[in-house]
Amino acid sequence: MLCEECGKNQATVSITVTTGNGVTTRRLCPECTKKMEFSLVKGDIQSFLSSIMSVLGKDKEKKEEAHEGLVCSSCGLSYADFEHTGRLGCAQCYRDFSVQLKPMLQKIHGRTQHAGRSPAAFVPDPQDELNAKLQELKKKMDEAVASENFEDAARYRDEIRSLTQKMEVQVSE
């Protein structure tokens, strides 16, 4: 996971602040942590705490502005409620908040696609399977074009068209 301050180095330090409004965590690299700790080493605890709170406050203000008005179309959970509780209300929340959740999942897990096992009773959404197949075909088509293998690229293009039509029929039903 990258440092949330500089965005360049590997984050190795987590700073968690608990307030009445919830818990906020920042992940920092050693260099950015040293910058914050400099005030503490000098004995200026107030300056140290204010630097942490200012970073956390800016981050929270940006998030609140960007996510204002986002609500799940199925259960009615707002994104602000999710940020406060840390819990999503239903499966549709993952779809409705996908743009906001992907960067967070990337930071936490290092990827945005599930890579583990699924429960035995899990029934995958056919639409998700078709989307995954579509993405795979697009990637193969791009690779075929890059390697100037236009016959395979045309075959992938035709498969993409067929799959897209199939998806449109499923959505209209």
Which outline best applies?
Answer: flat
Mean pLDDT across the residues is 78
Largest sheet: 2 strands, antiparallel
**Count of helix runs:** 7
Euclidean distance between termini CA atoms? 42 Å
Question: H/E series, N to C?
Answer: EEHHHHHHH
Question: How many β-strand runs?
Answer: 2
What percentage of amino acids are in beta strands?
5-15%
Helix content: 55-70%
User: Gyration radius, to the nearest Å?
Assistant: 22 Å
* Global structural class: mainly alpha
Low-confidence stretches: none
Q: What order do the strands of the largest sheet run in, or round the barrel if closed?
A: 1-2
Could you describe the 3D structure shown?
A hairpin with a 2-residue loop joins strand 1 and strand 2 (22-28). With 173 residues, the protein is mainly alpha-helical. Strands 1-2 form a two-stranded antiparallel ribbon. Helix 1 packs across helix 2 and helix 6 runs antiparallel to helix 7. The chain is built from 7 helices and 2 strands, in the order E-E-H-H-H-H-H-H-H. The longest helix is centred in the first third of the chain and has 23 residues, at 45-67. Helix content is 60%, strand content 8%.
